[in-house]
Amino acid sequence: MASRRLLLVHAHPDDETITTGATMAFYAAHDVDVTLLTCTLGEEGEILVPELARLRANCTDQLGGYRIGELAAAMRELGVTDHRFLGGAGHFRDSGMLGSPANNHPRALWRADLERAVFAEAVAAAAEVIADVRPQVVVTYDPRGGYGHPDHVLAHRVTTAAVSAVAERWAVDKLYWTVLPESEIAAGNAELRTAVRLDPSLAARVAGILAPTGRPATPAGTSGSSG
Ligand SMILES: [Zn+2]
Q1: pLDDT on residue 216
Q2: Is the dihedral angle over the CA atoms 198, 202, 204, 209 positive or is it negative?
Q3: How far is the CA of 128 from the centre of ligand 1 (A)?
Q4: 167-204 as b/e, with b when 16 or more CB fall inside 10 Å?
Q5: What distance in angstroms lies between residue 15's CA and the mean position of ligand 1's atoms?
Q6: pLDDT tens-place string over residues 39-67
Q7: Could you give the angle at which helices 116-133 and 150-165 cross, rounded to 10 degrees?
Q8: What is the reported pLDDT for 218?
Q9: Residue 149 — φ and ψ, nearest 5°?
């Protein structure tokens, strides 16, 4: 075990690379033990590759397993050898965007928001990882889960509670949130508004992302997607 250890808690496969990939690669290359804990398999993710379209949740529902392989490949690229799933692979399921039918799946991580026992189960699983890894630094999302996806919100709440729950066994020095500068968010939103002006058919998909505060709306007539 290296003297410096970093644990990152993310909601879905790909979140780690998109938001903290450079950080993970940097520390993995500088003698820091980097552990990734992913809360779900991202089963509800939007599929942009036509050849993989049949993997989607409402067809063969194979996306989660496929993303395990994608995540392993991503970790090889980043030089991270320790990657785990909360409660084991497939224990908690991608909840989809708020208001989508996936919220009600019996294994949806969002159930931890509704049932105290499920929340406690998730916290205990995260606490076990912290006790095992003994990281000085833990990284997860802010209280709004970055852009408001239910699983990102839960990742924040579960990680925060787990750091407290495990404190007598291992005291984490620092709990960091990944955040974007407001200026970058404003610039991105401006680009999206321009895109909608040029192609009004994008309006429904973009509406949730542009929701100003709180959790994004799920536009009627569109399916939720995971980020
Ligand atoms: Zn995500």
Answers
A1: 41
A2: negative
A3: 22
A4: eeeeebeebeebeeeeeeeeeeeeeeeeebeeeeeeee
A5: 5
A6: 999 999 999 899 999 999 999 999 999 99
A7: 60
A8: 39
A9: -60, 135
